[in-house]
Structure formats: C-alpha cells, structure tokens
Write a structure and sequence with these properties.
406 residues, alpha/beta, Rossmann fold, 5-stranded parallel sheet, SIS_GmhA/DiaA_subfam, SIS_dom
Length: 406
C-alpha cells in the first residue's frame, strides 16, 4: 500500500471516531451526573468489561482514583483469580459473583461491551437491577440491547468494534474528568478541546508512521519475531498498551490463513513490577531488563508521555542497542528521536485523553496489519483502498468458535 492510502485511511478513521463522540455527547450530562453522585456519596465504584473493554473501564477507575481518591475496585479480578474461577464455575457468572460479595458498598457499576450482549456483563447488570445499583453501560449500536433498571445506556451509534471502543474511552475519560469536582470545566468545553486535538492529528505524518510500523509488525509476525508494547512510565498509557498488545496478539492475525498468533511482550506483571520497584528504585531498570532479551529485527513500541524523559530515553537506547525496530508514540518532547526510533508526536492533551488518542492509533495499526497479512495469505497483489481498510473491523472474527483448534 502507498503512504497516501495510509494517510487517507487515518483521516477517515479519526473522522469517524470524532463523529461517534459527537453522537454520544448529548447524553453526556447524564453520565457526568451518575459519576458525580457516586463520587460524592463516597461509595465504591466497580467496572467490568471483556478484552479491550476491560482496559477501557479500568482507565476510568484509575482516573477517578488518581485525581480524587474515589474508592474504586479496579480488580475485575486478577488474571490468576479470573482463570481459576472460570474453570471452577461458569465464566458467565464470574463478574456477578465478584460484585455480589460487596454490593452493599457499591454506588455505581460501569460496564463496557460493544455487542451489549456479553453474558457475563448481562449477569452483572441483572444483579445490579436486583439491588437497585445504578449502571453506566457503554455499548455499541443503538443501545437497545441492554436495559439497566437504574442508570443509563450510553450508545456509540456504530457497530464498528474499534471505533466504538475509541469513542467509549474518549467520552468516559471526559465525563470522569468533568465529574471530579464543581470547579472543573463543563463537558462540552472538554469535548470540543479533545475533538480539536483529534482533528489536529497530522495524518500525513501519521500515514508515513503507519506504513513503517505496519511493515515492521507484519514482517515480525511472518518471521516469528517478538513484538514489544511497553509503557515504562505506567498510568493510563500502560492500560492502553495492554489493549494494544491484546489487539496485536489476539485480533490482528485471527482468521488469516497460515498466520500463527504473534509473540507479543507487554509491560511486566504485578509480581515483576513490584519486585523491580522494590529491588531497583530506578524506574528505567525494568524496561532495560525487558529489552535486554530483545533480538535484532524485533519490533518495539514505546508509549511515552515525554520523549525527553529519562526512562523513555533509556528505553529507546536499549531498543536501539539491541538492533530492534523501535517506534515511539509520545506527546511531549522532541518530535524525532536522535537514537533512531520512528517517532510520532500526538497533540497536547492530558494523560488520560492521550491514552484515547494512542488507542485509536493502535487500532489503525491492527487494521492495516490484518489487511496486509490477508493479502499475503491470498497470494494476490490486491490494491487496498481506504474504504477497504475502513471495512476491516476486527470484531467479526472474535468468536472462539472461529478460532482454529490448537
């Protein structure tokens, strides 16, 4: 694909995300009121989602807790607990059983599901109805697939999986920021500023970045090289990095003939991270340690708030020294790294809004990668258009029934 195709696709995609956000804004005041009431009452806020939606709702909880000390429970549960309980009991009841144990302390439950039909989400919503706990439900389409007894359904107005997820993270981030106190800016002001930032993304530069990154990722998948997705500074970018790694590992190659799941390495587990920070107070130690195992031609995505930050610079240096192909997404600092990383600088927005922009870029990359791998597997030198890429929704192949048996 030519760079122009990547540019036009990026422009079309971010425009659609902006339109979805605008469709959701008229009901934004209701969402802000739900969040504000829950934070003012001092009860607990819980959140649930599957796949990328899990990272989306946990980002909102992190935002509420970090900025206002709101009591939240961001453990939908640990991966170990989730796997253990899912094998002992039905997975469809796992979220509801986790919620039931302390539902008397809960003032609000946030759920996200593009389909709006995930059985475990519906079970949690049903339990909330029984106990009159308000639900803020973010769903795709027109929202008619879910009806909480209290609260609201906040629908994206589109069934496109990735555009819905990007709109969900954006509006939830903006609503949470607005709900944090009486002195905050009103939602329309925040939304217009964010939409202006979204429109300000330089799609010409982004097209060139996407082309380089897509070719690198597709080559890594074909040749069984590792792909790293790292955010050494943590925070909301680390959660969107988790979502990014999930899309690369799970969605980008799914259903493409002859393509195996890629080897994706993301940020350290809680066990690793706590050990690193306890034994080595230097925050850069962890990312240097991870990249010490990288090999030539591995692909490294570094998500950073500031490209000039010491941890980021050390990560870029480690990736370059290992002979990898590093790609840097950042907001602050120089637009081009002197260490040889392919960089793309995003507009200046706060840390949580930045995560929403990075999530859109990650989705763009996963769709272009899927398209390139599909063309490869067909043996045809097809000329893909921006319209073809806009139709590359990753969702239709997500069902496990469509996944080849291992």
């Amino acid at each position: 694909m030519t760079t122009v195709v990547y540019e036009d696709f990026a422009h079309a995609y971010v425009t659609e995300v902006g339109e979805a956000v605008r469709r959701m804004l008229p009901r934004g005041t209701e969402a802000v009121d739900l969040l504000a009431k829950a934070t003012a009452d001092g009860g607990e806020i819980r959140a649930f989602g599957n796949g990328g939606s899990s990272a989306i709702v946990r980002s909102a909880l992190l935002q509420l807790h970090a900025h206002a000390g709101v009591p939240v429970n961001d453990a939908m549960m640990s991966p170990a607990t989730l796997a253990y309980t899912a094998q002992r009991d039905e997975y469809r009841t796992t979220f509801a059983r986790s919620l039931a144990r302390g539902i008397g302390r809960v003032d609000l439950v946030i759920v996200a599901s593009v389909s709006g039909r995930s059985a475990n989400i519906l079970e949690a919503v049903r339990l909330c109805a029984e106990h009159r706990v308000p639900v803020l439900a973010l769903v795709g389409g027109d929202g008619t697939q879910m009806e909480p007894a209290d609260g609201m359904v906040w629908a994206t107005g589109t069934t496109d999986q990735q555009i819905s997820e990007d709109a969900m993270l954006t509006v939830l981030t903006l609503a949470a920021a607005t709900a944090l106190g009486p002195g905050t800016e009103p939602l329309p002001t925040r939304a217009e500023r964010h939409l202006h930032a979204l429109a300000a993304v330089d799609t010409e530069l982004l097209g060139a970045f996407l082309r380089e990154a897509t070719e690198a990722v597709a080559d890594a998948i074909r040749n069984r090289r590792r792909i790293y997705v790292l955010c050494p500074d943590g925070g909301p970018l680390a959660l969107v990095g988790e979502h990014f790694a999930h899309n690369l590992r799970w969605d980008a190659p799914l259903g493409v003939d002859g393509v195996q799941p890629p080897l994706v390495v993301c940020d350290p587990s809680l066990a690793d991270m706590s050990a690193i920070l306890n034994d080595h107070p230097d925050p850069a130690h962890g990312v240097r340690h991870q990249l010490s195992s990288a090999s030539r031609e591995d692909v490294v995505f570094l998500l950073a708030y500031d490209s000039a930050g010491r941890t980021t610079r050390e990560a870029v240096n480690a990736a370059t020294a290992a002979g990898t192909r590093p790609f840097l997404l950042h907001r602050d600092g120089p637009g081009h790294s002197g260490a040889g990383a392919h960089g793309f600088r995003l507009p200046r927005v706060d840390d949580f809004a930045l995560a929403a922009l990075v999530q859109s870029l990650a989705h763009l990359l996963c769709r272009t990668t899927r398209a390139v791998l599909t063309v490869d597997s067909s043996g045809l030198a097809a000329a893909l258009s921006p319209d073809d890429l806009m139709a590359q929704d990753l969702a239709p192949l997500r069902e496990l029934s469509d996944t080849p048996s291992l």
